[in-house]
Design brief:
Blueprint: E1 2-3, E2 6-7, H1 11-37, H2 44-69, H3 76-108, H4 112-117, H5 119-139, E3 143-144, E4 156-157, H6 164-204, H7 211-246, H8 255-266, H9 268-278, H10 281-291, H11 295-303
Antiparallel strand pairs: 1-2, 3-4
């Protein structure tokens, strides 16, 4: 498995990771296209999701190029690919946390004004910090061939950089660790708030606790549970290889671990598409009708009655409503 310091990337690993890159490319594109085509989806939470999808789209494309090429030495295209993937990957971490912060302030703190006022700050941090760090790293010659030590064919921090661990932290790992800590806390607090609100509604207004309402809360609860779990499940393999690198363990070159790392790093766009497009009823129905893939979906779209007004949590999974957190009140 080991060729000097180089981790061998087998053809089977390339095929699997390229496939997940393709899924993320399609998934991120779907999120962006549905936002462009259907104007009623252009709420603030969905807009933030689109910015995240742009980062995931760039990640999928740059990772796919790196996995296809499997760089074996420093080159101009290696540096360019490494710079793009470094920027996009770090930006994805920031936007993922930004969405959680927005939902927390909007839902738990019940302050739409404060939440909306943070959007500009989210832009400055989520685009600005990765851009500054990436440009600095490239200028100092830190981005380049890394022998797939903590990658799967693509380029990242140069393997011969004396301070490469520091730059690995600054160009990705530090923000990854931050997301690991922040996301579970914020989504647990949001879930707790929703449960308290749902309990109050069920106790004092039993008429609201009908099946559609319960179904809505169940879907929202499921998504709030899955968002941090899926993020950690996808990203943890990269973290494991990073820790093994620090420990100088050859286990980091294990083919199964390398494959899981490749799948995890390139699947975020696909996972977001499943969560916020395919598992969001109204958007799924529109897609079915638009693509003429399901006549039943088209019939349901034409004959289903208007959904009742519900709490502003539907971006998390209202199967019968708008599928969005409305911010136009």
């Amino acid at each position: 498995m080991e060729n000097g310091n180089q981790t061998v990337v087998y053809f089977s690993e390339q095929v699997v990771v390229l496939f997940t890159c393709a899924l993320s490319f399609v998934g991120s594109s779907l999120i962006i296209l549905t936002f462009i085509v259907w104007s009623d989806l252009r709420t603030t939470p969905r807009t933030l999701l689109v910015y995240l999808s742009v980062s995931d789209w760039l990640s999928a494309v740059s990772y796919a190029f790196g996995v296809w090429r499997v760089f074996r030495t420093d080159s101009l295209d290696c540096t360019i690919q490494g710079a793009i993937s470094t920027f996009a990957n770090s930006s994805s971490f920031f936007w993922t946390v930004a969405i959680a912060v927005y939902l927390y302030i909007f839902i738990v703190r019940s302050s739409q004004r404060v939440a909306d006022s943070l959007v500009l700050f989210f832009h400055l941090v989520s685009w600005g910090v990765p851009l500054v760090l990436t440009v600095t790293a490239v200028s100092l010659g830190k981005i380049g061939y890394d022998a797939s030590e903590v990658s799967v064919g693509w380029c990242w921090v140069r393997i011969h950089a004396s301070d490469r661990v520091l730059w690995m932290l600054l160009t990705g790992k530090l923000w990854e660790f931050m997301a690991y800590l922040t996301l579970p806390v914020l989504y647990i607090l949001i879930k707790r708030h929703i449960h308290i609100a749902h309990t109050a509604l069920s106790e004092y207004r039993p008429i609201l606790a009908n099946r559609p309402q319960s179904s809505f809360f169940s879907m929202a609860d499921m998504k709030l549970t899955l968002i941090p779990i899926i993020f950690i499940a996808l990203r943890i393999w990269s973290t494991v290889r990073f820790v093994l690198l620090l420990a100088d363990s050859p286990v980091r070159q294990n083919p199964v671990l390398v494959t899981l790392h490749g799948i995890g790093n390139t699947s975020q766009g696909a996972a977001n598409c499943i969560m916020f497009v395919l598992l969001t009823g109204p958007i799924r129905t529109r897609l079915c009708a638009a693509l003429c893939c399901c006549s039943k979906c088209s019939a349901d779209s034409q004959h289903s009655p208007e959904a009742p007004r519900r709490p502003d949590l539907s971006a998390l999974g209202d199967e019968e409503g708008t599928g969005e957190i409305r911010t136009d009140r």
